[in-house]
């Protein structure tokens, strides 16, 4: 049903090629996309390789945008943040919205976590969004989990979570079938941390390929049952893109209507780097240059949160994330937000191999568990940095065919 829906949608915009050609192109796209999850464990490199090899077959067709979106997510999965941003850029119109210079006059950047945790005390539901190719957004949600749990938030609802995943709350870690975007290590570890902190993780997006409003209405209906059965429940909802706009028929709109609880809606997607500066929101550029926050921030003015004019009445808070800097070629937010340590792997361990994925798994978790961290090693003879919490890990070198070239154990203090 999913494949038919997407194909019919694409055909409606593809009058210049035959239905047979469109079907063949779409089938190729679907087959390549699915290769990451074929087999017992995810093969993070095979789909990327085949999309790159067949790039000319998709260029100029209706599937080109689908491929760019898939490749951007796949790059994020293997830890290549900059490449993920660059791949997604053609999908975004350049932002020509004028700078809200009057509104921004006199604003002060305040620590985003502090503001959110303070505001959350007055809410039963907190909703925060992400761009699916930007793990930074998951890292930020991850940084809120423990403190929100201490405030009584016990449910984590995930748009991405597979509706057939029935054992995750007992297992306490995500596996291959838990959710597509959960294949990305920062997302996987956000869920792992939530489970180990004491959250119950719940799916709700049972109708992901229905019309937007109807899909979210049905999702909110499911989530309402949790509040009906647990009168004191507090819930954190992590979802994608525009599904938290309170002035549209989204999860935020419907759950407020069904439960009577006004959600705290937190937008991360506008005031985040897009890759090349010309794609950044002009207000983002202005804030970067004039206010220059050094950490994830919420802009405050006269005791109120500043948000983009287009988000007024839609969102309560808007997080500004500074441009990514890099520590040993790894994004700074892996260390700052997730409180991880830089663990250097000596090039001698690679035995002069190159173009492989270096993965780190918690010791004791099965092979189909989601890695804690991973990065693509392109050159032989160079040391590589992983971002790891304290613990015992199994490191694996995996080639594009999914073969484990080597594995060994390490400990991080």
In short:
The protein has helices at residues 2-11, 19-34, 46-53, 55-58, 64-77, 81-88, 101-104, 112-120, 135-150, 168-171, 185-197, 212-229, 251-259, 282-290, 333-336, and strands at 108-111, 125-130, 155-158, 200-203, 235-240, 264-267, 297-301, 304-305, 317-320, 326-327, 330-331, 341-345, 356-362, 373-377, 384-388, 391-398, 404-412.
Structure description:
The protein is α/β, with parallel strands linked by helices and 413 residues long. It folds into three domains: 2-91, no CATH class; 101-320, Rossmann fold; 340-412, Immunoglobulin-like, CATH 2.60.40. It has helices spanning 2-11, 19-34, 46-53, 55-58, 64-77, 81-88, 101-104, 112-120, 135-150, 168-171, 185-197, 212-229, 251-259, 282-290, 333-336; strands at 108-111, 125-130, 155-158, 200-203, 235-240, 264-267, 297-301, 304-305, 317-320, 326-327, 330-331, 341-345, 356-362, 373-377, 384-388, 391-398, 404-412. α2 (19-34) runs antiparallel to α3 and α9 packs parallel to α11. The longest helix is centred in the middle third of the chain and has 18 residues, at 212-229. The N and C termini lie far apart (48 Å).
Jot down its keywords.
413 residues; alpha/beta; Rossmann fold; Immunoglobulin-like; nine-stranded mixed beta sheet; four-stranded antiparallel beta sheet; 15 helices; 35% helix; disordered N terminus
Q: Helical segment tally?
A: 15
Name the average pLDDT: 92
**CATH class descriptor of the largest domain:** Alpha Beta
The SS-based structural class is alpha/beta
CATH topology of the largest domain: Rossmann fold
- How many β strands by DSSP? 17
